[in-house]
Amino acid sequence: MERPLTDEDYERLLEFRIGLRRFLRWSETQAAAAGLTPAQHQLLLAIRGHPDPAGPTIGDVADALLLRHHSAVGLVDRAAAAHLVRRRPDAQDHRVVRLALTATGSKHLARLTSAHLAELADLAARLHPPWEGLSRRRVDPDP
């Protein structure tokens, strides 16, 4: 038997979504203050956070950022022109192009990441996740 939705469920979900939107807006402001677009910030994080030590491909970045391949190429082109990232051939397969941060890109990302982790910790302390206390079963939308 699935439990019916409560007013508290809606309130908690709203609080969580508002917190996410405020965090994203704050993040965009932080990127702009660092001289980056929000997309450039996300690109830098997608490159640095990629688990393959060889670095991500443009396809990997496109997947991480939910972009089409040609849009990721344009983003990488603009970031490379701004000296934030660089392309390099894969050590094993020279047909594959890997992405890496430049020193400038790394410096920007390190500053932004420190601020973002602190902001996330603050946000987490203020929010009660909407899934807290809920079962993994689907909640019946029509009680």
Counting structural domains, the number is 1
Q: What is the overall number of helices?
A: 5
Largest sheet: 2 strands, antiparallel
Q: What is the CATH architecture term? A: Orthogonal Bundle
Beta-strand percentage range: 5-15%
Quaternary organisation:
single chain
Strand order of the largest sheet: 1-2
The separation of the N and C termini measures 11 Å
Describe this structure in words.
The protein has 143 residues and is mainly alpha-helical. It has one domain (7-126): Orthogonal Bundle (Arc Repressor Mutant, subunit A). Helices cover 58% and strands 7% of the residues. It has 5 helices and 2 strands. It has helices spanning 7-33, 38-48, 58-65, 69-81, 103-126, and strands at residues 85-89, 97-101. It has a two-stranded antiparallel sheet. A hairpin with a 7-residue loop joins strand 1 and strand 2 (97-101). Helix 1 runs antiparallel to helix 5 and helix 2 (38-48) crosses helix 5 (103-126). The protein is elongated. It starts with 6 loop residues before the first helix and ends in a 17-residue tail after the last helix. 17% of the residues are buried. The mean pLDDT is 90.
